[in-house]
Structure formats: structure tokens, C-alpha cells
User: Fold this.
Amino acid sequence: MSRTLDHLLDQNVAWADSRTRADPHYFLRMSEVQRPAYLWIGCSDSRVTANDVLGLDPGEVFVHRNIANIVHTSDLNILSVLEYAVEHLKVEHIIVCGHYGCGGVERALVAERSAMLDHWLQPFTMLYRKHRDVIDAIADAGRRLDRMCEINVEMQVRRVAATPIIEKAWMRGQALNLHGWIYAVHDGLLRDLGPHLSSIAERDALPTIDARVLAPAEPPATMKRRQALEAFARVGLESELAACCVCDPSQHGVSP
Ligand SMILES: [Zn+2]
Assistant:
């Protein structure tokens, strides 16, 4: 095994060279102040990279990622990101985006409790345990995991909306929209799960996350998106998802 990463440094030179050839002012623009309109809160999974999934250039989306896109309201990391994004960058949209087949979510469904990761996942694990009868009644393991991935997104959107940072922004009249999305690694498409939240009143009118667990709903989809989903399904890319790297430390190691 090489001790150096010269191949990555060489790739960097090639990338910077091609960018500059295509657009001589590219890095000059990048060096100016960033003004992203979006904050992305997503999973650390190496296959779910915000800029690629959204088709955005550097500078267009501010990003926070952690295992299973969990929002801990005592996590200084995510709170700092939120505060900076809302109060300084003035982002207009915050997207909490999970992904189907998430190994972090899968870990929350197993009995083992031996890693730091289990502390991290604890709020979601407790939700699962509370509704275990309902969730475990989904016979197909893949569908059960996917359903929990969706529930996790909805839960984390609610937790973002509950932070004083977001409340303060809404109270001073700042335009700020929260979204809950999920990404499918097997077809590259995003699904809008909701909820959409733009005010304290909308947040407070939401059914509880417990109610959402008990009353699942199909993600709403635009006509264009439905056509894309059907087209991809016909090509035969239905979910045989590789588990996220953190699902089984004995097989995959523990680093995300
Ligand atoms: Zn994940």
C-alpha cells in the first residue's frame, strides 16, 4: 500500500486544469464570497453527495453531513452550521435529505448497542422501539428499512424546525423553507417526502412523528418525477441496494 496519495494530488491538478480550460474565470469567481441559497443536511454515505445529486456547482449549496442525517439539538456542529447558514448566508431553503438503504438507519433497528454510533442514533432508535410492533409488521426487510429511512427524514425535519435558530428566523419574518427529501442510490432520483415548513404555524400544525409512523403516506410526486420513476423502473433498476458502509461494522469496518 502506498503511504502517499500522489494519485489524488495528480487528479486534483487535472481537475483544476480542466476547469480552468473550460472557464478561465472559474476559480476567480469561486474565491469571491459564497452565496448559496440552500443548506443540505444529509448522510455521510459516500454515494450521496449534495452537489452531484442536485446538479449544482461549488458555491451553490452549503452542506452538513453526518451518519443517518440525524439532527441532535445539542450537537454544536449542526447548530453552528444552521446558525451560520440562516443568519449569515441567509439561505432560503433547508433540505434534510436521507437515502434509501441507509446503513445508519439500519443500525438503529438492530439490538446490538456497543458503538459510539449507537449513542448517535439513540433518538431514532427510541422512536423505532416505541413503534416496533407497527414497523416489524412490514414483512419485507427492504421495505421495512426504506420505511424507516422515510420516517427518519420526517423526524429530522421536525427537529430542525424546533430549534431556536429557525424559530427566531421565522419570528423576524425571514423567508426560510424546510424540506424533507429522500434519495435512491439505485436510480439517482430524489423524492419529496415533506413536510414543507415555512412558518411556526405550519410547524405547530403538523401531526406528530408518532402519528406519521402510524399513518404512512406515499411521497407526493410531480408528473415529471412520476414519469422518471416509471422509466427507471422499466429499465430494471429496482432496489437491490448495497448497504451503507456503517450498517455492519463486522463486515465493513466502522468508518463512514
Ligand atoms: Zn446513510
Remarks:
- The chain is about 45% helix and 10% strand.
